Structures are given as structure tokens and as C-alpha cells.
Amino acid sequence: MPQSTHPSSPAYSPASDLAPSPAHPTLTGRLGLPTAVALNMMEMIGVGPFVTLPIILATTGARYSAWAWLLGAVIALCDGLVWAELGATFPDAGGSYAFLRQLYNPRRAGRWISFLYVWQLSFSAPLSIASGCLGVATFTVWLWPALAAPIPGLPFLHSTSLIAAAACLLVTALLYRNLTAVARMAWILFFGVLVTIVGVVASGAAVSARLHPAPSFASLLGWPTLALLPALAQATLIACYDYWGYYNICFLGSEVRHPQRTIPRAILLSLALVAALYLAMNFALLPALGSGSLLATHSASRVALVADLARLAFGSTAARVLAALILWSAFASVFSLLLGYSRVPWAAARDGNFFRSLDALHPRHGFPHRSLLALGFTATLFCFFSLGQVIALLVVIRILLQFLLQHFGLLALRRRHPSLPRPFRMPLYPLPVFAAIAGFLFILAFRPHPFTELAAAAAIAATGSVLYFLRARRLHHWPFDTHP
């Protein structure tokens, strides 16, 4: 990476550190706006809304579930504007790694904070990928119950773990090719994701239309009270998890054509489209679920809820088709997740801020193959762990060690370098930043029993800091460098 002047110098520009050294191989910009939107939406939708919908309903009740989706959409939009501005200003591989490195000075604390981000990603990214693979396995077993039979001689293994691990290895193999081929596969997967959402909305609308008397929306929606805030915070946490992914294209910043325009548009378009789809799904399902019987029957069954809606609406064959489509959507989400996250360790290793062995591009196809394989195999191992609290753990870790750091960093950057070129400037600044911070703090402060996830985030931050400072002392990096 080229040397830059000190931040106190008038000539300092954080963007100056983004151009890689000629000695380093670079990624090629091939992704246009339509593919960028498709990749974002695949990660956003995935299996999340279909698996978590019963959890949100059980947390808040049918009358208040829409508020969680609405509040989650507002938080996602405000946070998305932060990502859009940072992604257009620093369009480099690694997304948040590049942002945090630049926001906190790449020659000083930015090395430490960006290392912490990659360190937490070493845990959170494989968990995210593994959770999607477990979603694939869960719907596979629902479609073919015989696969749930115990494994002879291996009682400690569950068939869903093996199916999930196989799905993870398959996605890794599919991504082990050039970006043009990957983009073609992404479009095929994306089409199935859209068909899935349409099928869920149509099923809910068909069941709701048969209710006599049909409930009014006024009877299905209620204003949340102060006593409901803990439940609403927990449900909003889950809704935020379902919206996340609008920033996926930022991790592929070096592979985007005209990134200063494409990245902000892809973020805002994918957010608008997915928010509209989620709200349409919610309002289509509310009358059927608000009637009480269906929700009570399936309050403990996360898979059967949406499938049973399709069965009630169109028959048992439709239920199996919809379950297969949800399986397809989950697979597409894992595809997009692994594609985006595989660029982060490579970007850090390229800068000498992570394990050097990951600093390699495929000699023929030009993608970070070692980083892809390392993340894919780690996620495969995570498929054999219990992920009962994975959503809460992932959200809390990323709020504390990624999202809030970006928000405060952007505020500081705007103050320190007001003349820095910004291809995209968020409207109404700084209100969206403060609104996103307030929304995330609401989730952290009001959800019940938050201490387990907060302790886990603190432990990851502490171990990552110790590892960084030991490594920095050995390599003479900040704060042990002799030439600050």
C-alpha cells in the first residue's frame, strides 16, 4: 500500500491509501448495478424471514409484529445511507475492513480497529454462513423426512449437520471460479428467491381472503405500549437480521463497475425492494395468522408455518413446492454471503494486517481463492455446532464491533475532513446517522437478558486486541512502529 501523509497535514486524504501497490494483484471490476442489487437481495432474503417470522410473531404477538418490521426497515434505511456514503468514498475490497481502516487512520488506530473487525468476522461470518446452511438442511429434512433418521453407529451426529456441511462445501465449490460465471449463477438463484417471496405472499393472501368474517387491519394492528418495549426490541433485532445484507456489494467494491455510482444505488434499491416485499408478506399473512388458530398450531414449528399456509391455500403439492423454493432461497443466501465475506480476509492480508497466507488471487480466474476456501471450510465445521442463539449473538457483535464503529467514524471523518470528495452524500446528514445509532442502542438496551451476547462481544474484542498488540509488537506496527 502506498504511503500517505499524516492526517494532520492539509494534503491528507483517507482515499489516498486505497490504491493498491503495483506489486499487488488486483481484482477486476465486472459487476454492474443489476447484479449488485441481486447479490444484495439474495443475502437479505435467504431463509431468514421464513424461519424467523414465527419467532417475531411469538415475541410480540400478531397485532404488533408489523411494528418490528417497520422499525427494522427504518433502522436499515438509516444505516444503509451510512454504508452508501462510505462505500462510494472507499470502494475497496473488504467493505467494513476498508472503511474502518480509513476512518480511524490507516497508519495508526485504524490498523487495530480494522484488525478487530476481521477477527470478529472470523467468528460471525462462518456462523452466518452455517446458519443459512442449517436452514437448507432443515427444509431438506422437512421435504424428505427419511433423511432425519439417526446415523448408524454415530449417535452424536445429526443428519441436518451433515446436510448443512454438504451444502456449505457445494457453495464453496460453485464459487471457486471467475466472477463472470459466478454472476451468471447469481441471476439464476435470484430468480428463485423472487418466486419464493411471491409464493409466500400469494399463500397468505389466499388464506386471508377465505376468512369469514375477514378481520380488519385495525383489529390486527395495535399501538405498542411501554410494557411491550422489551419484546419489540427483541423482535426488531430479528427483523434487522432479516434486512441485513444490503451492504454485501461493499465487500466486493474492487469488483464493481463505476463503484461511486453503483454501490449507493445498489444499497438503496435493494433496501427499498426488500422492505416492500417484507411488508407485503407481513400484511398478506397477518389476517390468516391473526385469526389465532394457525399461529397457535405452529408456534413451535418454524418450518411448517409458511408451508402450511401454502397447503391451506393451494393444497399439499403447493406446500412442498414452497418448501423447496425456501430451500432454494436459503442456498442463494449462503452463496451471496460466502462470496462477499471471502473478500475481507484477503483485503486484510493484502495490507499486511492479517495472516499473509490469505494474500493470494487465483492465478487464472483472479479471485481470492485461499480466503474463500478458509472461510468455506470454517463455516463447514460450524455446521456441527448448536446455533440456537446465533441470531442474537451475531446482531449484538456486529452492532458493537462494526456498525457503531462505522457510524462514529463517519461523524469524525466529516468533521476532520469536510472537503474530502464524497461521490454520494447522504441526505439530511447527520440525522440518519443519529437515527441508526438510536435504533441499534434501543435493540441493545431494551431487549431482555442482553448480558450473554454483550459478554461474548467483549470477549472477542479483548482477545482480538491482545492478538493484535502481540502481533504489532513483533512486526513493529502501530503503536510499536518506529516511523509513525
Could you please describe the fold and organization of this structure?
- The chain has 484 residues and is an all-alpha fold.
- It has one domain (28-475): Amino acid/polyamine transporter I (Up-down Bundle).
- It is 67% helix and 0% strand.
- It has helices spanning 33-45, 48-60, 65-89, 96-103, 109-143, 159-175, 179-209, 217-220, 229-243, 259-290, 293-297, 304-314, 316-341, 343-350, 369-382, 390-416, 431-446, 451-475.
- Helix 7 runs parallel beside helix 10 and helix 12 (304-314) packs antiparallel against helix 13 (316-341).
Explain briefly what this protein structure is:
The protein contains 18 helices and no strands.
Q: What's the architecture, going by CATH? A: Up-down Bundle
Terminal Cα separation, in Å?
15 Å
CATH superfamily: Amino acid/polyamine transporter I
What is the helix content?
55-70%
Topology pattern, helix = H, strand = E: HHHHHHHHHHHHHHHHHH
Number of helices: 18
Structural category: mainly alpha
Explain the layout of strands and helices.
Blueprint: H1 33-45, H2 48-60, H3 65-89, H4 96-103, H5 109-143, H6 159-175, H7 179-209, H8 217-220, H9 229-243, H10 259-290, H11 293-297, H12 304-314, H13 316-341, H14 343-350, H15 369-382, H16 390-416, H17 431-446, H18 451-475
Helix pairs in contact: 1-7, 1-10, 1-13, 2-9, 3-9, 3-10, 3-16, 3-17, 4-5, 4-16, 5-6, 5-13, 5-15, 5-16, 5-18, 6-13, 6-15, 7-10, 7-12, 7-13, 9-16, 9-17, 12-13, 16-17, 16-18
